From TrEMBL:
Species, as recorded: Mycolicibacterium obuense
Entry GO CC: plasma membrane
Membrane topology: Multi-pass membrane protein
Domain of life: Bacteria
Protein name, UniProt field: Probable membrane transporter protein
Compartment(s) of residence: Cell membrane; Membrane
Cited InterPro entries: TM_pro_TauE-like, TSUP/Inactive_protease-like
Entry similarity comment: Belongs to the 4-toluene sulfonate uptake permease (TSUP) (TC 2.A.102) family.
Keyword field: Cell membrane, Membrane, Transmembrane, Transmembrane helix
Length: 302
């Protein structure tokens, strides 16, 4: 019962992040599970099995509101499923000693990406009608995103959503809806890969799966409220820093780095993180001024 409560709280925290940012459920949940002493492969397997339910519900919701481009889902989701199965197979075949630093390195890289994306990003220009992405672009993106997602315990959203939005060819709501729908295929494929690789261990993590699902359902309406109260830039910068700091500790221990170098590494990360949080906070509070044309300035009172 105690472990179920802990994993439910992990699900709440991960869904709050995902609901406010539109990504990072897997990265956040896996990081918190690994910190709770859950094995690397077991944590990723539990997260993906829980996501089978959450992504199905998300995909159906986006379908109802016509946010899905089905050709985009097929071209992105099928290669993503293949990559996820390969990533799950690779992670399942590694020993705990080797799987932990691999996952920590992948999660840290994704954390750095999230940290920089939400603190230093520039506004995206989205075309009115937009053009569809070709299979030559979507297939490698899906394959890479699926492999990283399964082997690292998360990363489908940060890799695919951010890349598609940065291309500026598809409306944001269509990108988010299509990526969410295609993630169902990724989660199912990764779960099958972990089932084959972990066998009996796969069914030993039911408290983790149930906890994540229950926590996600509880936190969904709270996340909707949170996104209207906290700047996504500020929240994303904060979460990205937590992911980087926690996973850097695992890498420092793995490579047996001692004082004073370990302290120097942590200090550098914290200083950079705090600086980016301050920058994001100031940017979120900056007044949104509208440029005044020369003609308008002539009629303004002095």
């Amino acid at each position: 019962m105690r472990s179920l409560l802990i994993f439910t709280l992990v699900g709440v925290g991960a869904q709050l992040v995902d609901g406010a940012l539109g990504m990072a459920f897997g990265v956040t949940a896996t990081t918190l599970l690994v910190l709770s002493s859950v094995g690397a492969a077991q944590a990723s397997a539990a997260v993906h099995l829980a996501e089978v339910g959450t992504t199905l519900a998300s995909g159906l919701s986006h379908w109802r509101f016509k946010n899905i481009d089905w050709p985009l889902v097929a071209k992105l989701g099928v290669p993503g499923a293949i990559g996820a199965f390969l990533g799950a197979t690779v992670l399942s075949s590694l020993s705990t000693e080797h799987a932990a630093p691999l996952m920590a390195a992948i999660l840290m890289a994704i954390g750095v990406y999230v940290l920089l994306r939400f603190s230093l990003r520039t506004p995206l220009a989205i075309g009115g009608q937009g053009t569809r992405h070709g299979a030559k672009f979507l297939a490698p993106l899906g394959l890479f995103g699926g492999f990283i997602d399964a082997s690292g315990g998360g990363g489908w959203g940060p890799v695919t959503t951010s890349t598609l939005l940065s291309r500026g060819k598809t409306a944001p709501r269509t990108v988010i809806g299509s990526v969410s729908a295609s993630e169902f295929l990724v989660s199912v494929s990764a779960s099958i890969g972990f089932l084959i690789g972990l066998r009996d261990e796969f069914f030993q993590n039911w408290p983790v799966v149930v906890g994540l699902m229950v926590g996600g359902v509880i936190a969904a309406p709270i996340a909707a409220w949170l996104v209207s109260r906290i700047s996504p830039a500020l929240l994303g910068t904060g979460v990205g820093g937590v992911i980087v700091l926690t996973n850097s500790q695992k890498l420092v221990h793995f490579f047996d780095i001692h004082w004073p170098w370990s302290t120097a590494i942590y200090t550098l990360i914290v200083v950079a993180w705090v600086s980016l949080v301050v920058y994001a906070w100031r940017a979120s509070r900056a007044p949104k001024t509208v440029p005044v044309s020369a003609a308008d300035s002539e009629v303004l009172p002095r």
